[in-house]
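Notebook entry, cofactor series.
This is the third protein in the set we're modelling with a bound small molecule. For this one the ligand is zinc ion. I'm keeping the input format identical across the series so the outputs can be compared line by line later. Sequence and SMILES below, as received.
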Amino acid sequence: MLKELSKLYALQQVDTEIGRLEQEQANLKRGEEMQKRVHSLKSSLGEMESRLRTLDAASQDKKHELQRLFEQYEEGEQRLDSDGELDITEVTNIRAYLDSVAEKQRRTSLEIQKIEAQRTRLKGEIEEKRTVLAETQAELEEVLAYEAEERARLEEELEEQRETRARLAQQIAPPALKRYERTRKHCANLAIVQVEEDVCPGCRMVLTPYLVRQLREGTGVQDCPNCRRILYWPGGDLEIVDKVTLITRRR
Ligand SMILES: [Zn+2]
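Returned structure with ligand:
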């Protein structure tokens, strides 16, 4: 295991790079979010356009109604004008009828004005929404093109890294590889930590002088007593940690 450690450490560096690239891939989701936005804009626009069609129909109905009322009024007036033989009651009745028709005309005109105001407002809102939709769609196309390029680049890099990983893994004894994979699962993807002083870089715990001596002498694979990560001391006795320094640092 000990002689596999430097190879495992190199493998871990590749795994870290693979993880970073995969994260970058996962972060490419702006296009997806914008597609959802385009979809929601379209559906809201469709709903507004259907509301406008309802208003158009209502406006047409009211205009026809107003036309009928004008015709009724004219007929009434003609009866008053043409017929000289009307008695006073008939004249009064026709006048009352004309008043009621005029009142209906007034109300219908007001309703038409109200509907027209709503149509104008809605048309303006639809125009605005169409502009936003067109802008969003144009931006979406750019974002999708950029993301496609990025995805291709990341996929290429990942492919390279995965090939490197497979090559490295082949050179490592299976039990050591297994131990690495197991530790990695339990230690947030960081199984091996390179000890440079007397502290575990994984959890910042100060290592005992005894442990540091064992690492330095390279007597076996040592785990951090706190986080269980595999401690890697490259170069064996490259670094001499003297006891006095260790005690001072721990204070
Ligand atoms: Zn630790």
